Amino acid sequence: xxxLMLVLPAGVLLSxxxxxxxPEAVYRSAGAAAMVTLTMICLAMLFPKAxxxxxxxxxxxxxxxxxxxxxxxxxxxxxPGFWNTIVITVICTWIGFDWxxxxxxTRTVNHAIRSVAHLYLDILNLFLRLLLRDKGRLKK
Length: 140
Description:
Helix content: over 70%
Number of helices: 6
Order of helices and strands: HHHHHH
Number of domains: 1
Radius of gyration: 16 Å
Number of strands: 0
Oligomer: single chain
Strand content: under 5%
Shape: globular
């Protein structure tokens, strides 16, 4: 039930937002998100210890992204184009970390649901960031 309460509202909001983008941009972003996700999962399988030991670094980088974005919204600051690439990199590291963390946990239904929810949100954020990188692809 908890996973449904996460996925259903996110799916509704996503379907409303995607109407504003051209289908080609959505397909490209979804394909890129899938390729990046598979790459990060493979890296997490090859080097799980590296991802697990870097949790504090990932957490600090995510906190820094949140602070900068909240500040930029508050003062109506337009962030430079490379900022999106930085955020995409941070999200990619979280995909690898969440996969490594999921593999480390005991195999229970609760852990599986929690791990899938984390990965779902990571991949959704990655997809949206990749889509927003193509701002010029909005429907007219």
